[in-house]
Amino acid sequence: MEYAIQLSLGVSNMYAIFTVRCNTCLMTSETLGNMAASSETSLHDRLLDEWGMAVVSGTVSAGERLPEPDMDGNATPSRTVTREVTRVLESMGLVTVKRKAGATANPIEAWNILDPQVIQWRLRGPHRIDALHELSQLRAAVEPMSARLSAANATPEHWATLTRAAIEMVAHSDHANESEYLDADILFHRTLLEASGNLMFAALGDVIASTLTGRTQHELMPQVADQTALGWHTEVAALIRKGDGDGAETAMRQIVDESDQAISHIAGTEA
Q1: CA–CA dist 230, 169 (Å, integer)
Q2: pLDDT, tens digit (0-9, with 9 covering 90-100), for 34-43
Q3: Which one of 88, 135, 137, 161 is most buried, by most CB atoms within 10 A?
Q4: 188: closest CA among 138, 240, 153?
Q5: Are residues 207 and 252 in the same domain?
Q6: Structure confidence at residue 42 (pLDDT)
Q7: What CATH number did the domain enclosing 123 receive?
């Protein structure tokens, strides 16, 4: 009986040890798998940025093939990664892929110019001021009308969000080039587009967000926000709540015009 107990305990202990060791192996394998996946994702993102920026900046001219990956001496991306990146660039209209010919850069007319990532690359490139002017012109065509429509279609939730965003912008106005102000600014303009009730306007939320984000990331925002422009944001929120479409449209147009004038000032400073 004693032998049997010892044997049972021995088997039990062996099983326990085996189980622990197997679990450790499984955990190690899972960890290694996650690390490999993370590495592939990192290479994917870096290669996408490298090639996308090369096309948008003009380093790779229209009709030229994409260069070999240059990962600053780090790991070379696999064929799977390069194929996936090429497909993403093709979906953005930046490249054309042909069998045996590889991927060649497209002219700007073929790009999906409203893709948020393409906007980000353009704002990092040598023609960022031109891109910002184009985006300001788009905003001038859309946001004032969105404000007018919002006066008729906005819900109480929209009113509350617009008001809260305007207050947050004022609260962080001494640090207008930092993330807290940017988040409030994006929230205000995205909510404005959604409150219009026009699904096409609402779909431009990411475009406007990319524009505002790009201005901040590339140091195109002043440290202290323009107080007059802040007042117009508050005014737009109040006029929408009152249902004053004419007033909301006028105030919103002033916001967009002031933004474009600020870009012109930056262009003059950089010239």
Answers
A1: 7
A2: 444 455 568 8
A3: 135
A4: 240
A5: yes
A6: 86
A7: 1.20.120.530
